[in-house]
Design brief:
The chain is built from no helices and eleven strands. It has a four-stranded antiparallel β-sheet, with no helix packed on it. A four-stranded antiparallel β-sheet has the order 8-9-10-11, with no helix packed on it. A three-stranded antiparallel β-sheet has the order 1-2-3, with no helix packed on it. Helices cover 0% and strands 42% of the residues. It starts with 7 loop residues before the first strand and ends with a strand. By secondary structure, it is mainly β.
Length: 123
């Protein structure tokens, strides 16, 4: 993903990275991500970056985490089941033209975030 400042953002099953054209910066749980397994990165119209994360399986040696993290360029805010998601395994994030954030999670569906609450959509 390329942000409005021209930085390139990408992830793998270990952390997220920013490339500014000269050097790489990595972001992990130590920096405020809820998980080191980042599935999606998107930028909203206000310039915030949103990271979709998977919850980490303790049986595989990872630990915990998951949900969505918002990065304002300085710090991370985390959104999880405590904030209305039914599942912390986030696979996709998209902002629509009206500014709503749409979130797809593993097995549990689709959510719309209006800046305050997550609304679950189901069949």
């Amino acid at each position: 993903m390329q942000d409005k400042n021209g930085n390139i953002w990408f992830s793998n099953w270990g952390e997220a990275y920013r490339y500014d054209g000269k050097s790489f910066t990595s972001f992990t749980k130590n920096d405020g991500l809820s998980s080191d397994i980042v599935t999606r990165i998107t930028e909203d119209k206000n310039g915030n970056l949103w990271f979709g994360c998977l919850s980490e399986d303790e049986n595989l040696g990872f630990g915990y985490g998951g949900g969505i993290c918002r990065y304002d360029g300085k710090s991370f805010a985390r959104f999880t089941t405590k904030d209305g998601l039914l599942n912390n395994d986030v696979w996709t994030i998209l902002e629509d033209r009206t500014g709503y954030l749409w979130v797809g999670t593993r097995k549990t569906g689709l959510y719309r975030y209006n800046g305050k609450v997550f609304i679950n959509f189901s069949e």
